[in-house]
Write a structure and sequence with these properties.
With about 70 residues, the chain is mainly α. The protein is about 90% helix and about 0% strand. Helix 1 packs across helix 2.
Length: about 70
Amino acid sequence: MSERTLTKEQSQGRVQDRSQTTVSAEVDKVIIGSVAAFTGIVGLWVVACLGSAMYQAGGPFQLIGSWFKAVSGM
């Protein structure tokens, strides 16, 4: 093979490597964004559940007291 052919093959290999890296980086960004969004939704759900529990129990201290009674079996 001539030197020119080898150079052309090497440059094509570099272009393919870069395009695969770019696609991989974009996929990683989508995955990270999806995980962050799901985490935010779960966090909001937790806050809503705790707020509802405090309202039903009559306040945060009553909620904690009720929780200890339920765990200890008193």
